[in-house]
Design goal:
By secondary structure, this protein is α/β, with parallel strands linked by helices. It has 2 domains: about 15-325 and about 445, LCP protein (Aminopeptidase, 3-Layer(aba) Sandwich), CATH 3.40.630.190; about 335-425, Alpha-Beta Plaits (2-Layer Sandwich). It has 13 helices and 21 strands. The strands form 6 sheets. It has an 8-stranded mixed β-sheet with strand order 1-12-7-2-3-4-13-21, with helices on both faces. Pfam families: LytR_C (PF13399), LytR_cpsA_psr (PF03816). This is LCP family protein. It comes from Glutamicibacter halophytocola.
C-alpha cells in the first residue's frame, strides 16, 4: 500500500473514500502517522453500545456533509445547529466486487426514530426532513438512514464546509467541466462554460448551488455534486499530487483535520483497511446513483422514496447488484472475473427431491450458464419437502454455495455438512424459495470511470 504508482483509471467515487485511500499510501511514514492520527475527531455512532453489524457480506458507510455555520470563517450564511447538506449511503460489496453510492436527497421526508442524547441533545422522533437529524448528532443521522433504508450501517464519516474548502485548496484546486455558464449569487458562484480549474470555495459553491441548475431544487444539484466528487478523486490520486510531498502532506493534513468518524474508523489503520477495500474495486463497477423519489403527498416541495427506492435498498441489504434501467453491465475486469471464478471453484451436485420432471437438469443448465461446475444431477431416493443448500466446511465450498444461491435467485443460506463441494437438494417448495425478479431501477446514475464532461 506504500507504492505511489496510481493508474489513471483507478478512480474512487467519493471524496471521503479517497481520504482513506491516499492516507493508506503514506502510512509507512511513521513521522506523519502520529501527526495525522492526532487530527482525527470521533463521535458516537449509536446512542447505546452494541455490536457492529457484520461486514463480511458487504460494508455500509454513511457519508455526511455538514452545513454547520459554527465555523471560524464567515460567508456560509446564517443558521444554527447542523444539517446534512449532502448524505451518501455507500455499499462496498463482499469480495470488493463493486461499490454503490446512493445520494439521499436532503429534502426527503422520513418518520425519524427517537434519538437519545449523545452530546448534541435528544430527539423525540417524528416526521421531518432527513437532513435535520444531524442537528442531534451523527448517531441520529445513522438511525434515520437505517430506518429509511433498512440497511444496517457499519460506519459514518462527516465533513463540514471549511474542511471541504481546505482539502480542495490543498490539492491546488480541481478540474471540472461545465456544459454551460453557472451563476448563482446566493451561492457566490460565477463560473464560465468549459474545462477549468476551480479552488475550494468555487468547488463548494458548485456542489451546493440550487439556483444555477434545473428547477432550483435539491434534486437538481445532485448531478453536479457527483461531478465535483469525481474531480476531487481524480486530483487526489493523480501524479500531480502524489509526486509532490508538499502537496500530498497538505492534502493529508487537511483531510484528517476535517473528518469526524465513528470509533470504529478512528485510527489510520482503520482508514487503511477501508482504503484497501475501496482500491480493489474496478472503476467500471463503482456507481453513483440518486435515491429514486416521488413528491411527498403532504408537501409537494419535499420528496419520499419511490417503489424503485425500496428495490434499490433491498439490493444493498442483500448484497446483490442494483439493476439500473437503461444501463449495460459492460465488460468485466480481470480482477472481477478472477473473483467470480474463485466463487465458483467448488463442484456442485444438484438433486431432484420434488418429483418434478427434469427439475435438476433445468437448474443444472442455469448453474452452468452462470459459470458453475456441475459435477452431476440425480433424483433423490425419497420426496423431500424443503429445498436445502449444503456446503463442505471449506472457504471455497461456502463461497460457491453463497454465489450459487445469489445467481440462481434462491433465498437460501448454505448449511455446513460433511460432504464434498456443494449440494443443492430441490424439494417440493423449490418455487417458494425463488425470489421474484426485480424490475430495473429508474434513477440518475454515474459510473466512476465516466468522463467529467459526460
Amino acid at each position: 500500500m506504500t507504492e505511489l504508482r496510481i493508474r489513471p483509471h483507478r478512480r474512487r467515487i467519493t471524496l471521503l473514500l479517497v481520504f482513506a485511500l491516499v492516507i493508506a499510501l503514506v502510512v509507512a511514514a511513521s513521522g506523519l502517522w502520529f501527526k495525522l492520527q492526532g487530527n482525527i475527531s470521533t463521535a458516537s455512532m449509536r446512542s447505546s453500545e452494541s455490536a457492529a453489524p457484520d461486514s463480511s457480506h458487504g460494508l455500509n458507510l454513511l457519508l455526511l456533509g455538514s452545513d454547520t455555520r459554527d465555523l471560524e470563517a464567515s460567508g456560509f450564511g446564517k443558521g444554527s445547529g447542523a444539517r446534512s447538506d449532502s448524505m451518501v449511503l455507500v455499499h462496498v460489496a463482499a469480495g470488493n466486487k463493486r461499490i454503490d453510492a446512493v445520494q439521499i436527497p436532503r429534502d426527503t421526508l422520513v418518520d425519524m426514530p427517537a434519538c437519545d442524547d449523545t452530546g448534541h441533545g435528544s430527539f423525540s422522533g417524528g416526521v421531518a426532513m432527513i437532513n435535520s437529524a444531524l442537528n442531534y448528532g451523527p448517531a441520529c443521522s445513522v438511525a434515520a438512514v437505517e430506518s429509511l433504508t433498512g440497511v444496517q450501517l457499519n460506519h459514518f464519516i462527516e465533513i463540514n464546509f471549511e474542511g471541504f474548502i481546505s482539502i480542495v485548496d490543498a490539492l491546488g484546486g480541481v478540474d471540472v467541466c461545465l456544459p454551460q455558464p453557472m451563476k448563482d449569487p446566493k451561492a457566490k458562484l460565477d463560473l464560465p462554460a468549459g474545462d477549468q480549474k476551480v479552488n475550494g470555495t468555487d468547488a463548494l459553491a458548485l456542489a451546493r448551488t440550487r439556483h444555477a441548475v434545473g428547477d432550483g431544487s435539491d434534486i437538481a444539484r445532485l448531478g453536479h455534486q457527483q461531478m465535483v466528487m469525481s474531480a476531487i478523486v481524480q486530483q487526489a490520486t493523480s501524479r500531480e499530487t502524489l509526486a509532490r510531498p508538499d502537496r500530498l502532506y497538505s492534502f493529508l493534513d487537511a483531510a484528517t483535520s476535517s473528518l469526524t468518524v465513528d470509533p470504529g474508523l478512528s485510527s489510520l489503520s482503520d482508514l487503511t483497511a477501508l482504503a484497501a477495500r475501496a482500491q480493489a474495486v474496478p472503476s467500471d463497477d463503482i456507481t453513483f446513483m440518486t435515491m429514486p423519489w416521488s413528491p411527498a403527498p403532504q408537501n409537494r416541495n419535499r420528496v419520499v422514496p419511490s417503489a424503485d427506492a425500496e428495490s434499490l435498498f433491498a439490493s444493498l441489504r442483500e448484497d446483490s447488484p442494483v439493476a439500473l434501467a437503461g444501463t449495460k453491465s459492460g465488460k468485466k475486469s480481470d480482477a472481477d472475473a478472477a473473483s467470480e471464478i474463485n466463487d465458483r471453484a467448488a463442484a456442485v451436485h444438484i438433486t431432484n427431491a420434488a418429483r418434478v420432471a427434469n427439475l435438476a437438469g433445468d437448474y443444472a443448465k442455469k448453474a452452468s450458464e452462470q459459470g458453475f461446475t456441475v459435477s452431476g444431477v440425480g433424483n433423490a431416493a425419497s420426496v423431500q419437502g424443503a429445498t436445502t443448500l449444503l456446503a463442505a466446511d471449506t472457504d471455497q465450498a461456502q463461497q460457491t454455495a453463497v454465489a450459487l444461491a445469489k445467481d440462481l435467485n434462491l433465498d437460501l443460506k448454505p448449511e455446513t455438512a460433511a460432504i464434498d463441494g456443494v449440494q443443492l437438494h430441490l424439494g417440493q417448495d423449490y418455487q417458494s424459495v425463488e425470489k421474484p425478479e426485480k424490475s430495473p431501477v429508474k434513477t440518475t446514475n454515474r459510473k466512476a470511470s465516466q468522463s467529467l464532461c459526460g
